[in-house]
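Tokens in:
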């Protein structure tokens, strides 16, 4: 009888603690992959493909001083984008990074550093967004954003119909 009670108590304790321990590894808040950034040798061809063939809407485009696009966000759904970039001497063609929207960037950076992840210092940008970067074991950059409503991404998300 005593063995049965200890066994049942162990099961109950394990069932109660498992969700707490498993969720303890999750980063706090609502976090999701917001974009994937890909560099192309032929930016115009990639832009036409995603807007005309895939049917993604242009969320915004950043241009250099000469008016040439350096990157564009095309919107696949409410809060998911493909970031198209022009490949150049410093940015080879292919996957450049992925963007992770985080609810609280300061807390996320602190939690990742506590876990031994090398994370750049948080930077507050003038476009109502904060950003920090980490790198995964394969060398892929993870661009973590906390987006304000005035950021280009925040405006695109708010305007989605």
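Residues out:
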């Amino acid at each position: 009888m005593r063995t049965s009670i200890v066994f049942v108590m162990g099961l109950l304790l394990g069932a109660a603690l498992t969700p707490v321990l498993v969720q303890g590894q999750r980063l706090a808040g609502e976090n999701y992959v917001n974009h994937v950034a890909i560099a192309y040798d032929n930016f115009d061809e990639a832009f036409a493909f995603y807007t005309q063939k895939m049917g993604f809407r242009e969320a915004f485009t950043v241009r250099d001083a000469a008016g040439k696009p350096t990157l564009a966000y095309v919107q696949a759904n409410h809060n998911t984008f493909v970031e198209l970039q022009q490949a150049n001497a410093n940015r080879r063609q292919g996957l450049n990074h992925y963007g992770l929207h985080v609810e609280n960037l300061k807390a996320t950076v602190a939690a990742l550093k506590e876990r031994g992840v090398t994370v750049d210092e948080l930077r507050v940008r003038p476009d109502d967004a904060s950003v920090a970067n980490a790198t995964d074991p394969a060398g892929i950059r993870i661009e973590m954003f906390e987006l304000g409503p005035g950021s280009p991404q925040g405006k695109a998300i708010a305007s989605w119909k």
